[in-house]
Design brief:
The protein has 519 residues and is of the alpha+beta class. It folds into 3 domains: 356 residues, Tachylectin-2, Chain A, CATH 2.115.10.20; 85 residues, no CATH class; 67 residues, no CATH class. Helices cover 22% and strands 31% of the residues. The strands form 7 sheets. It has a 6-stranded antiparallel β-sheet with strand order 9-12-16-15-14-13. The two termini are 43 Å apart.
Length: 519
């Protein structure tokens, strides 16, 4: 199938208070800002809109166990003939909308099997029909398909010279504002033109979900970060070996419960916090036969129950030459936003972990694509207003932040932040920014940082690089353009971006023209 082609149209600080004080010391106008010179992006005709026909099956459990039991009794009471008729209708209506519907219904049945009598063995028809009553379709992108990032595809086999196969990640949002991560594949040719492949058929959530084997030393450190470090916690942790699994943790909690005579609400609350942390670190796997555009990274952990938001993917190269994809994202549980880290080498197996430390407050973390001076580096916005730079010896822990840039120009006076990971160029680290100005209008800007010392701002655009125009202004959140990651290829800056938190398009910019404006 032909894809969607893009045709051109013309001082270290330790807390927020100190950080803000340091930012106040920055000059109102950065001396190295570029002159009032507008760089002209070339917008493409690409438009990826939300499709309500892309659905996954999501567990649907009643609010009470009594109601669940009532439904189960009703299904069990159905005759074999009636169960077969009803199940036949389910397959007739839904089999063409999902891969392996039988397997999905069986998985659903297993979630409620414990509520049935142990000596009751349902027929195949009753088993699958029970599964159908406790599952429902969820249109994961019915509301929006937005906030993209772009990275090179892990498989470049068969790609013509000077072209590059790419992976586009997208935030899909459906009913209840629950967000997940989708993917599209595409190609950028030797002239910087981009082509996005159409999404393939079904959509599929992870085939396997497992909790990580935890390193006790790191787990203890993470417990300290969430203020769970009393003697009760120590006794639970002391029973565990240097590496432990979720089952080991549950056994230790169970042993402590049996030993503690006055187990009460306080102990149960601490135990739940320990479980919460463990559940926040997990892995998901997809069957290799599932095309990438069908794989959906859907919320799994309790901290993600309301969504996985704004994943900023980057292809990271370690000092050894080994490459791995990282993505920082925001987990939302309905009350609080929590920064998380995703790791993958092939987009088939994903590892999710907590980000920790006083430096990772707020949203919008973006890793540099390599270490600088032997340390990881990351952009952040810990005060919800300005940009900061952080360094760390451990990609999971971030403590101190260096003020980098505060709102200066009229189109960004409300707040600024990054638009994904910096991209290395011969002139410096190219960073796209977002700024919020009058009428809550979001624009995309750019700055250039020194390669050896990214705390030095070489240049910064005075005017937006991309601002919402025409139909880009209409959507779920009007007057917003926003991206979570860009790349450079064939002398062009490839910028996928969201239009008013609704749909996604792509623009390109001549790299040398942009660098000249920044210089």
């Amino acid at each position: 199938m032909s894809g969607i082609k893009g045709k051109s149209s013309q001082g270290t600080v330790g807390d927020g208070g100190a950080a803000n004080a340091a930012l106040e010391s920055l000059p109102a106008e950065v001396a190295t800002d570029s002159e009032n010179r507008r760089v002209q992006p070339q917008r493409t005709s690409i438009c990826l809109k939300p499709d309500s026909g892309r659905v996954v099956l999501k567990p649907f459990l009643p609010e009470s166990e009594d109601k669940t039991q009532r439904i189960l009794r009703g299904i069990v009471a159905l005759s074999q003939e009636r169960a077969a008729i009803d199940l036949g209708r389910v397959f007739a209506e839904f089999e063409g909308r999902h891969r392996d519907l039988e397997g999905l219904l069986s998985d659903s049945f297993r979630q409620v099997r414990h509520l049935l009598p142990e000596d009751y063995e349902p027929t195949w028809e009753h088993r699958l029909l029970i599964g159908a009553y406790f599952i429902g379709e969820y249109a994961l992108e019915s509301a929006a398909l937005f906030n993209p990032s772009i990275v090179p595809h892990p498989d470049q086999s068969g790609v013509s010279k000077n072209s590059l196969r790419v992976v586009l990640s997208l935030r899909a949002t459906g009913e209840g504002h629950i967000s997940s991560i989708e993917f599209r594949c595409g190609m950028v040719d030797g002239e910087g033109n981009i082509n996005i492949d159409p999404a393939a058929g079904y959509v599929t959530t992870a085939t396997h979900i497992t909790h990580q084997v935890y390193e006790k030393a790191m787990f203890r450190q993470k417990l300290l970060e969430i203020d769970v470090a009393d003697s009760f916690t120590a006794r639970i942790m002391d029973r565990l070996g240097p590496r432990f699994a979720m089952v080991d943790l549950e056994e230790s909690i169970k042993a402590e419960r049996a030993k503690t005579h006055a187990w009460g609400h306080g102990e149960e609350e601490i135990a739940e916090k320990i479980r919460w942390l463990a559940h926040s670190n997990y892995e998901i796997h997809f069957d290799r036969s599932v095309p990438l555009s069908q794989r959906i990274v859907f919320p799994v952990a309790p901290i993600e129950r309301q969504g996985i938001e704004d994943a900023r993917f980057v292809l990271f190269e370690e000092d050894s030459g080994k490459k791995i994809y990282y993505a920082t994202y925001t987990a939302w549980d309905g009350d609080a936003t929590i920064p998380q880290l995703l790791e993958t080498s092939d987009f088939g197996r994903f590892r999710m972990s907590t980000l920790n430390g006083k430096g990772v407050r707020n949203k919008g973390m973006a890793l540099f694509p390599r270490c600088i001076g032997g340390r990881y580096a990351m952009l952040s916005r810990m005060d919800s207003e300005s940009m900061f730079l952080m360094y760390s010896d451990n990609v999971h822990f971030w403590h101190d932040a260096i003020p980098l840039a505060k709102p200066v120009h009229s189109w960004e006076l409300n707040k600024i932040g990054n638009c994904g990971s910096p991209v290395e160029t011969p002139e410096g680290w190219l960073v796209l920014t977002h700024g919020v100005g009058p009428m809550r209008k979001y624009c995309i800007g750019a700055m250039l940082l020194d390669l050896d010392d990214p705390s030095i701002v070489i240049g910064r655009l005075r005017e937006p690089l991309i601002e919402p125009m025409g139909n880009e202004r209409e959507g779920y959140v009007p007057n917003v353009v926003y991206t979570c990651g860009f790349m450079v290829h064939a002398g062009r800056v490839i910028i996928p971006y969201a239009m008013s938190d609704y749909a996604t398009t792509v623009a390109t910019v001549d790299l040398e023209e942009l660098l000249a404006a920044l210089r």
